[in-house]
Recover the amino acids of this structure.
C-alpha cells in the first residue's frame, strides 16, 4: 500500500518509536499547526474551525505550514483536525465558539436522555461520516512528498465522554463525575462505544495514508481522575484501542503502526501505561525526565515530551535550561526519546522562539556531529 505515496525520506520518528538507536532525537510539537502562526490566521481567514477540518485542501495546507516554516528541524506532521470529530460522527452537534472553544448545544444529560439511546444505538459509518478526514490525510501524504511521517490521532474515550456530557471545557467536571460515579454502567457502555469508534477511525486513517506514520491517542483530561478511577474509567479503554487497532489493521490488509498514548496529568499511571501495547508514552511537564526515563527504560518504551509549553514565553536562557534538563534526563537523546512539549503550543508564542527550542535540541544533542 505504501507505494501509493512518495517514499519516506525522514523516518527518525518511526525508528525512535520502535526503540532503535538514532543519530539525534526526532522532534515535533503538539498543536504545531495553530494560532501562534501568522500563516494559520491567513489561511483560516473567517472560516469556521470545523469547516477548515472538513475541507481537505485547507486541512492539508494548515498541516504543512509548520513543516515548511521549520524545514530541516521538524520530524513529523500531524494532520489538522480535532478530537471532537468523533462525537460529531456519533450524531452530536459540536460548534467551535471563537475565543471560547468547543461547544455542544445539546450535551448528554444522563442515561435517560433520549439522545443517549440514539448515540448508543447508532451504527457509526466511520468511512461515510469522517470521509473528509481520510481525504485530507491522503492529500497531505502526497503533498508531504516523503519529507516527514504523518501522525494521525484521536481523543481517548474518557476525554471524549467529558466533552460529550459537559458540552465543552469545564473546571468542575460536575457532569462527567456525575456520569461515572452515579451512572457507572451507562458510562462504561458509552466509553466502550467511543473506544470502538476510535479503533475504526484510526484504522481508516492508516488506510487513507497515515501508514508509515504514527497514531496518537490524546487523553487530555486524564489528570482529573484519581489513580483508582483512571484504572476504572480511562485505562481499560485506552488499552482496548491499542490492543484492537493492530487486529483491525490486519483485517484491512495493513501493517501495524507505532502508537502513542498521551494521558495528560496521569503521572501516577506511567508504569501502567508502560505495561500496555502502546509504543510511546507522552509525558506532560509534571514529570521529571530522568525519573520517567528510568521507568520507561525498564519496559523498553519510548517517551515523548515534555517541556512546559509556557517556557516558550520565556527567555532563551530559560528555553536552553529546559532543553538541557530534558536531554540529560532522557539519556542524551539517542534512544527512547521524542522531543516535544508537555502539551500543545499555546497562542501568542513567537514562532522564532519555537525555532530556537528546536535548534537548542539539535545543538545540545550534538546533531550533525
Ligand atoms: C482537548 C482537545 C481538543 N482538540 C484536541 C485536543 C487534544 C489535545 C489537547 O489536549 O490539546 C486535538 C487537536 N486539535 C487540533 C489539533 C491539530 C493538530 C496539531 O497541530 O496538533 C489537535 C491534535 C487543532 C485545533 N483545535 C482547536 C484549535 C484552535 C481553533 C482556532 O481558534 O483557530 C486548533 C488549531 C480548538 C479546540 N479543540 C479542542 C479545544 C479544547 C479547543 C479550543 C481551545 C484551544 O483553542 O486551545 C478540543
Amino acid at each position: 500500500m505504501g507505494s501509493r505515496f512518495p517514499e519516506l525520506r525522514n523516518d527518525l520518528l518511526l525508528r525512535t518509536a520502535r526503540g532503535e538507536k538514532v543519530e539525534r532525537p526526532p522532534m515535533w510539537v503538539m498543536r504545531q499547526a495553530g494560532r501562534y502562526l501568522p500563516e494559520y490566521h491567513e489561511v483560516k481567514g473567517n472560516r469556521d474551525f470545523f469547516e477548515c477540518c472538513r475541507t481537505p485542501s485547507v486541512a492539508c495546507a494548515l498541516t504543512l505550514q509548520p513543516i515548511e516554516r521549520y524545514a530541516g528541524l521538524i520530524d513529523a506532521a500531524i494532520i489538522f483536525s480535532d478530537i471532537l470529530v468523533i462525537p460529531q460522527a456519533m450524531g452530536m452537534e459540536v460548534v467551535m465558539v471563537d475565543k471560547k472553544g468547543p461547544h455542544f448545544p445539546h450535551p448528554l444529560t444522563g442515561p435517560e436522555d433520549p439522545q443517549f439511546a440514539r448515540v448508543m444505538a447508532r451504527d457509526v459509518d466511520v468511512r461515510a461520516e469522517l470521509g473528509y478526514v481520510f481525504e485530507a490525510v491522503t492529500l497531505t501524504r502526497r503533498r508531504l512528498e516523503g519529507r516527514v511521517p504523518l501522525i494521525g490521532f484521536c481523543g481517548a474515550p474518557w476525554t471524549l465522554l467529558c466533552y460529550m456530557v459537559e458540552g465543552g471545557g469545564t473546571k468542575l467536571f460536575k457532569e462527567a463525575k456525575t456520569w461515572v460515579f452515579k451512572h457507572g454502567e451507562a458510562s462504561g457502555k458509552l466509553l466502550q462505544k467511543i473506544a470502538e469508534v476510535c479503533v475504526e477511525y484510526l484504522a481508516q486513517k492508516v488506510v487513507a495514508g497515515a501508514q508509515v506514520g504514527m497514531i496518537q491517542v490524546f487523553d487530555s483530561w486524564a489528570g482529573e481522575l484519581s489513580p483508582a478511577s483512571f484504572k476504572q474509567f480511562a485505562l481499560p479503554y485506552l488499552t482496548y484501542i491499542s490492543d484492537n487497532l493492530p487486529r483491525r489493521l490486519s483485517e484491512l490488509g495493513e501493517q501495524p503502526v507505532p502508537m502513542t498514548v498521551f494521558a495528560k496529568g496521569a503521572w501516577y499511571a506511567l508504569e501502567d501505561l508502560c505495561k500496555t501495547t502502546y509504543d510511546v508514552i507522552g509525558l506532560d511537564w509534571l514529570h521529571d525526565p530522568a525519573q520517567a526515563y528510568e521507568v520507561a527504560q525498564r519496559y523498553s518504551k519510548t517517551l515523548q515530551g515534555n517541556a512546559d509549553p509556557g517556557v516558550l514565553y520565556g527567555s532563551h536562557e530559560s528555553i536552553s535550561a529546559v532543553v538541557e534538563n530534558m536531554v540529560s534526563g532522557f539519556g542524551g537523546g539517542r534512544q527512547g526519546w521524542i522531543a516535544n512539549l508537555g502539551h500543545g503550543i499555546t497562542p501568542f508564542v513567537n514562532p522564532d522562539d519555537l525555532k530556537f527550542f528546536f535548534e537548542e535540541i539539535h545543538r545540545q544533542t550534538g546533531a550533525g556531529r
Q: What stands out?
A: The chain has one domain: 2-364. The first helix runs from residue 12 to 17. The chain is about 50% helix and 10% strand. The pocket of coproporphyrinogen III is lined by residues 30-35, 49, 78, 80, 82-84, 96, 101-102, 153, 169, 218, 220, 344 (CB under 6 Å).
